[in-house]
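During the reporting period the student researcher (J.K.) took over the structure-prediction task from the postdoctoral fellow and processed the backlog of single-chain submissions. One of the processed entries is reproduced below for the supervisory committee.
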Amino acid sequence: MVDETNSTLLRTIRNSAHPMDRMARDYDPLLELIGDAKLVLLGEASHGTHEFYDARAQITQRLIQEKGFSAVAVEADWPDAYRVNRYIRAMGVDRHSRDALKDFKRFPVWMWRNSDVLDFVDWLRRYNDKRRADQRKTGFYGLDLYSMYSSMEAVLRYLEKVDPEAAARARYRYSCFDHFGEDPQAYGYAASFDLSASCEKEALSQTLELQKQAIAYADSDGNVESDEFFFAWRNAELVKNAEQYYRSMFQGRIESWNNRDRHMAQTLEALIRHLNNQQQDAKAVVWAHNSHVGDARATEMGDRGELNLGQLVRERCGQDAVLIGFTTYQGTVTAASDWDTPPQLKRVRPGLENSFEFLFHSTDMERFLLLLRNDKPLQEALREPRLERAIGVIYRPETERQSHYFHARLCEQFDALVHFDDTRAVEPLEYVAAGEGRDMAETYPTGI
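J.K. obtained the following structure tokens:
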């Protein structure tokens, strides 16, 4: 039962809320708030909830069709997402969207290999296929940095095609990592305690050489070759930044988290510059967890020294970026109980009493939109911090308060928020056996 002291707060929320009736017009107020913004960051409160994926797809489709957005950048590895990019732009060898998603092999496979993403990739392909040759097509890109070894392979493949001698030099530099058996954590552990084991110099040298050859490699014949150079260069940058990330893992969570989100922000900024060189006025949509999208300065994360993508984007772009969060009170979620274990259909417990999730549930509204940026009464009503839930790829309801909640000031964290009171799990394209795609537990234990 909600305390009487909350009655005014609930009334303010109800007065500000835009009810959502599963109609095409549901996101009209949000599109109006977005206006001419160049960057829209769409969050999620878990990595396994259907409503979050579906809502992001609906919003993104409208941004592409109505406001000219031409890039979707997601919390996924750069080379894995670039295979999807080739498919939706009819540049690759894949014949079906399911094939284009096959490079997503690392745990958690279901985060991108699920039915909602499959439907969205199908839509992107159909949309691009209808575009004329003189019209811009939408691309699909990854922002994350866990693909250190596959990014090395991508750099080598590119150089072998355009400059075999440069490929030989790159192969020699990257051989520095060979002692660790394609285990980034083993590399990070060794390099953090023994500077002689560090490959920092080699990774940096390779990036610098690619940058010096940018004109020669990318100017040969138009945008396709320019895209391929950009893909290779960002893979080289990823290797450099991932090398730093894995060394920082053993120096503490804060530094490694900050390195990861700085890489995401750098990749997004580089992507916008690249697209502007081709078409001008480039606009991008970002899909990532609330913990990356919401401004860290308004959360416990910021209080302990962590920054994130949303904060960095706001600092650079101001009102030209719109940060949108998502919440749910209860339902089901696809998540694992531990790293490299199969995904499970898990019951999401009702939100804790002192949480935003419980507060929104108490409005008795099934689903609604809050425009936080310009609503002064709502900002005043929600000025005090409350608990907010974050479920990553791991969900542990038995330790939910410690594992999945943090304090946040919502109106400073996001420009808008969408609440779904009861949600259901995403449907993985397949369930993998325990240990398949085994890799690193960088974001253990939350998996965000």
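The committee noted the following: Residues 159 and 380 are 56 Å apart (CA to CA).
J.K. will present the remaining backlog at the next meeting.
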